[in-house]
Amino acid sequence: MKLPITPTEFRSILLSHGWHDLAPFKTDIENRKLIIPFAHADGNGCVEIHADKSECHFNVVAGDPALAQRVVNNALSLDRDMSGLYAVVKGTDFEWLKTQKRGRYLRGTTLFEDCFKIILTTNINWDMTKRIVASTVEKYGTDLGGYKAFPLPASLSGIIYQSSVLTS
Question: Full-prediction pTM beyond 0.90?
């Protein structure tokens, strides 16, 4: 399915910050490809997003196509209205954000995933963040036939509780 962004915009979204380098994302910047395995209360799946010379597309590797579309829209911030940002930068040195259609960023597939990663990046260095996220996905993530999705909160709640009881 075709996405409403250009390959340049896709690259900008991928490189908006370091999320592309964290599990469960599988990113190939050079070949303009992103694989997103996801676990949601509404279902699990996996999508592959890729760009050719002029367009961006995504394929549903596994799961419900409607849910996959929602995941892609969220992960690439396509569900965000950029008009407020573009109005603020109009007539300033930052108007290039509007002319180049910038300002979108890569997000996790759930708010929980983003919060988990943000808390880590606030408290420890990037290399440790990458290791903890990768380990969390590997140990507790939902297996989707070769890919693992970021775990849902319920799958970690017992572990967090046991850990806090043991350290109290």
Answer: no
